[in-house]
Amino acid sequence: MFALHQIQTRPLLLNTILSPKNLPSSLLLIKMSSSWSCKICTFINPPSQTPTCQICLSSQPPSSSLSSSSLSPQWPCKSCTFLNPYRNSTCQICGARSSSSALSLLDEEIDDAELEEVGGSDIGSVFLPLKGCTNILKSCSNKGKDLSEPSGLIGLRKNGKRKIMDEEEGEGDDSGVKSDDATKDKSVTERKGNFLKIMTYNVWFREDLELYRRMSALGELIQLHSPDIICFQEVTSDIYDIFKGTSWWKTYSCSVPRDKASTSAYFCMQLSRLPVRSFKCNSFHNSIMGRELCLAEVEVQPGRTIVVATSHLESPCPGPPKWDQMFSKERVEQANETIKFLKSYKNVIFCGDMNWDDKLDGQFPLSDGWFDAWSQMKPGDAGYTYDTKSNKMLTGNRTLQKRLDRFLCKLEDFAANEICMIGMDAIPGLTYYKEKKLKKEVKKLELPVLPSDHYGLLLTIGLD
Question: Keyword Amino-acid biosynthesis on this protein (predicted)?
Answer without folding.
Answer: no
